[in-house]
Amino acid sequence: MAEPDDNALVEARNLRVEFPVLSGLLRRKQVASVRAVDDVNLAVRRGEALGLVGESGCGKSTLGRAILHLIRPTAGTVLFDGHALDTLSEVAMRRHRRRMQMIFQDPYSSLNPRMTVGEAVAEPMLVHGLSDEGDSQEKVADLFRTVGLDPRMMTRYPHEFSGGQRQRIGIARALASEPDFIVCDEPVSALDVSIQAQIINLLERLRGALGLTYLFVAHDLAIVRHLSDRVAVMYLGQIVEIAPKDEIYARPLHPYTQALLSAAPIPDRAVEARRQRTLLQGEIPSPLNPPTGCRLHPRCPKAHATCRAVEPKLRQLDGQRWVACHLYDDAPTTGGG
Ligand code: SF4
């Protein structure tokens, strides 16, 4: 068990998500299952932004969706504000759903092309009874202003907007149900670099102004750097390191985190030339047949015999740092394990 936290708004406990692998002419026969999220324990504290990073296909987006119960977990529990989501009645779940929202990588696919963007933003307010037809227009106009859009754009359709504007509409729609917690699933990955900074600044400003809590999913450590208070690193369905932002960037412990940071360019050429890199070998293995022991061992430059046989557990090294790596088996701990 890792990451018990008294100040958690959201907690994943031993969360597992498996997808069936189907075969046969009609693809009805299950021949195997892929464990996309494997026994994850993670807490997101009230008011914090927790960055969740890892390569494509590591399970981070699936974890975000499972935490919101947009994907039903195969095993484990998600606690939201102390309530286990899998035990809630339909009515209670609807009440909680209002408080948990998602911002998607591609807002265009989450917007109905036949609805005006004003209607799309009003919809969650009406569904959750936060507004009626009479005052929804004014509330939508306020939300447009909040996300930096001109309310006169409310009558237009999604295809009339640029990528950055559409992401602002996606953010307005997420805010419309007055949530406490938002999973931001690669919200800037599809945008130009100059627009990325604007959207990240907007999300940061909204967090302060509205007291939001974020799980910010990204494949790039540089993207989460500005926004996150802590960072969790995921590899092949498992969390391998969690640390406060400053510590993870200054002194990454896990070889996978070191490799992710090594891959990010440093603007200062002299520093770039001097720095030591950790490079991984080969490709990310299939989650259908993950390696024995530590899942990173076929790629890890620091692997040793134990790594091939024994799976390292996520251990708490001090009050704030958690790592799953045999290199730290003898390091002093302050709990967890
Ligand atoms: Fe590398 Fe071994 Fe640590 Fe896994 S447990 S990251 S293989 S050193």
Notes on the structure:
The structure is a single chain. Helix content is 32%, strand content 24%. It has 337 residues and is of the alpha/beta class. The strands form two sheets. It has a nine-stranded mixed β-sheet with strand order 6-7-8-3-9-10-12-11-13. A four-stranded antiparallel β-sheet has the order 2-1-4-5. Helix 5 packs across helix 6 (163-175). The longest helix has 18 residues, at 193-210. The chain is globular and about 70 Å long. The model has no long low-confidence stretch (mean pLDDT 90). Iron/sulfur cluster (SF4) binds at residues 254-255, 294, 296-297, 300, 302-303, 307, 312, 325-327.
Key attributes of the depicted protein:
337 residues, alpha/beta, four-stranded antiparallel sheet, 13 strands, globular
**Major sheet attributes:** 9 strands, mixed
Structural class of the secondary structure composition? alpha/beta
Q: Can you write the helix and strand succession as a string?
A: EEEHEEHEHHHHEHEHEEHHHHEEE
Percentage beta strand: 15-25%
Radius of gyration: 21 Å
How many strands appear in the DSSP assignment?
Answer: 13
Q: Which compounds are bound in this model? A: iron/sulfur cluster
